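== Folding the chain ==

***
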Amino acid sequence: MSNITQPAGQETTNHAKLYQLALFPMNNGATNVYFVLVLSYIALFGNGVLGLLMAFATIMVTVMRLCDAITDPIIGALIDRTNGKFGKFRPFMVIGNLIMAASVLILYLFTPMIPDTMMWLRYVLFVLLYFVWVIGYTFQTSCTRSGQTVLTNDPKQRPMFTLFNTVGSLVGMGAMQFLAPLIRSSVGDYNTAAFYRVLAPLGIVISMVLTVLAVIGIWEKDQPKYFGIGGKESKKVKISEYIQIIKCNKPMQRLMVAGAGCKLALAIATNVSVLCMLYGSMMGNYDGLYLPMMVLGYVFSVPFFLLTIRTSQKHGQKASLEKYVRVALIMYIGVLALMILWKPDNPAFNLSLFGEGGLTINLYTVLFIVFFGVGYGAYYSTADMPIPMVADCSDYETYRSGQYIPGVMGTLFSLVDKLVSSLSTTVVALAISFIGLKTLPAAETAYEPGMNWVVIVLFCVIPMIAWIATLIAMKGYTLTGAKMKEIQTVNASRKAAIAEGKTLEEAMKMYPAIEDVKAGAK
């Protein structure tokens, strides 16, 4: 692996060890456990178990995330200003996980014990505990985005972070998606308190284990010498300056749109209620279709993870994101066509894998497997790709202004993540209300007229629109692979100048661009 050197002869690239690249992304797995545990089920829990109005349980998810817009920049500022005995990121990872564990445990295990005669208390605790959980989620999830900046700035390694990040996501999110239907079949449906009494503790344990692994992964890198170009002497940025910083950071603006598009596609298409309607209400075999199709999607995603890394290393992360989002978009045209052709009383136009006599697969199912499998594999491999790109935007901000503010970059992206994922719950609930359902669909919900069109919009149309928005946003994204190499070289040259006694302002003037670094090296 070659290193770019600057005039002082110091290495410009901060490399990570393989175990660090593999373990730190488990932080994303830890938070994705809660992405499923809370965001996929909290509306079902509030409506089906606590008896809260469906409109309240679903819309409150979005409202609380809008309120969280106030706390996100504050937490980002806390991360940027933290530099204690245990580093900048580790304290927020651990504290955030403990906050989420406590709030979810009380919410899922103890609020159902409140008697029906005290419904007001159920409403109050639902809102309060959900808000506390959101704070913990922000603490930990923002570290996944911001912590990358200290882990590595190697343009060859950052795409590898996408792979390990997705592995971490699979371990966390995949474990919950795999366990949930098994728990449901043994203890009760998604709208029963027994289901959450089992799922919640399991999820908490998995998340804690992944958090410990992530802390080990970043331990060695979580120290001042990796904090930007000025280390611990970096100027502290006021919260009031953050708006101006983001206003000037055009790549970050575009990445937020792209990230929102990718996240919205994933959040809606994998929503439990949507999948219950598709595999249960429409196709009539939730237990026989959900797990096989989920496994199928993961199997198809493996080659795409490898392809995205290769493309990112060769052409940059922007090129990789654009390429495979296009693949997903094209494949989902086929999925859309199949969904439109679905006929409730015609077995030839229904999904079918196994029957009483064994394998009952038909042409409709084969085509669905191809289009859905390739499309899901492509978009799942890109869903978390904007995360390592946040580190590029943070490095660009250091290049542009000299400021090292990974915390605010991470929380801004975390805010988009949360707003979009919570918006997905409200969108699903509103769409379901159009066909007259008073409660969110579960696996055993019977088919209602018009439900197929709701599924078509939620499972196909909205994700496709989101991918189109992603491609439009990426069109003007300037942080290509070649540009990032220049940025890292300039930042390293400035860091060397500061180490030799120059102030930040003097170093910025000495090396304003790559041409000045090259001139100084002659």
Q: What stands out?
A: Strands lie at 354-355, 358-359. Residues 119-151 form the longest helix (33 residues). Residues 487-521 form one domain.
